[in-house]
Specification:
The chain is of the alpha+beta class and about 290 residues long. It has 8 helices and 6 strands. Helix 4 packs antiparallel against helix 6 and helix 4 packs antiparallel against helix 8. The longest helix is centred in the middle third of the chain and has 70 residues.
């Protein structure tokens, strides 16, 4: 299997951890760089940095969302009261009662019901212990996620290689036709001069050949053909290498498009123009596919 990963992927894994069950859901879409977003229960937020390090070791590009939910995890809690807030609230309520002449007694239930007077916090386990329990489930989910990305990437790679092969074949056809460009121009120019001049024999052969030579220089697409073949070769080799390659392939696709466009502009030949149109259409499909690669 070729070492190519798609930037889109999905996985959901559930496993035992922290005395209960933990479910991990991962999904990703295209992005120019790597963007990690974690949606964690409060009791696990202190492990976000550890999770990010684990993902950065395996994922290079894409917007990746990780959602973790706990089920049946009986975490100890700590109930605390905000002393400063409670005292200020009690004082304010007493002053309000006195200044407004209100009836009624202040009681514990009323004070405890005020926002932020009482707070309930889940106690977290030691970081090392929690990470040791949670990591296996995360690694399983990450493996499933990467497996899906690899399968999609392999399909994209096969499609890209087939399209590069088609462009290579058409490049060979352009190369075989490039010498006809000058001869076609010579015949066209001679025919046009014959139509204009009363006596076709008066055509200045020397001048005609000079014009043809000038066109041959302007219409020479040898350099574009060499660079096109070089770019095709680089892209083929890059697809088969390890590591992220989407951005490099995107750059080479733009360079290929530039060379092929210049080729069509310079050649001024119907057959070459037809081949250039086919190549550019295939390149557009390649560009769309490359946007999905890591």
């Amino acid at each position: 299997m070729l070492s190519v990963y798609s930037m889109t992927g999905y996985a959901r894994v559930e496993g035992p951890a922290l005395g209960g069950s933990v479910s991990v859901e991962i999904k990703s879409v295209n992005h120019r760089y790597l963007e990690l977003r974690f949606f964690l229960p409060p009791s696990l937020q202190f492990l976000e940095a550890d999770m990010a390090r684990l993902f950065r070791e395996k994922v290079c590009r894409g917007r990746v969302e990780v959602r973790i939910n706990l089920s049946g995890v009986d975490l100890p809690v700590a109930v605390e009261w905000n002393r400063g807030l409670a005292k200020q609230m009690d004082l304010a309520l007493k002053e309000m009662k006195e200044e407004l002449g209100l009836q009624g007694e202040l009681d514990l239930a009323m004070l405890a019901g005020q926002k932020d007077v009482l707070t309930i916090n889940e106690k977290v386990q030691a970081e090392e212990e929690s990470w040791k329990e949670l990591r296996p489930v995360l690694e399983d989910s990450l493996s499933s996620f990467l497996e899906m990305r690899a399968k999609e990437g392999a399909a994209l790679a096969e499609d890209l290689m087939a399209r590069l092969e088609s462009i290579g074949k058409w490049t060979g056809e352009v190369e075989r036709n490039k010498d006809n460009v000058v001869e076609t121009y010579r015949q066209r120019l001679q025919r046009r001069l014959s139509e204009i001049l009363e006596d076709p024999e008066k055509v200045d052969r020397s001048r005609l050949e000079q014009e043809v030579a000038l066109l041959a220089d302007r219409a020479d697409i040898t350099e574009e053909l060499v660079r096109t073949r070089s770019h095709l070769d680089q892209m083929g080799k890059l697809i088969e290498t390890e590591g992220a390659k989407g951005r490099k392939l995107d750059f080479l696709t733009q360079e290929l498009f530039r060379e092929i466009t210049t080729m069509g502009n310079k050649a001024q030949d119907a057959e070459v123009s037809r081949l250039v149109v086919d190549m550019k259409a295939e390149l557009e499909k390649i560009r769309e596919q490359v946007q999905n690669l890591e």
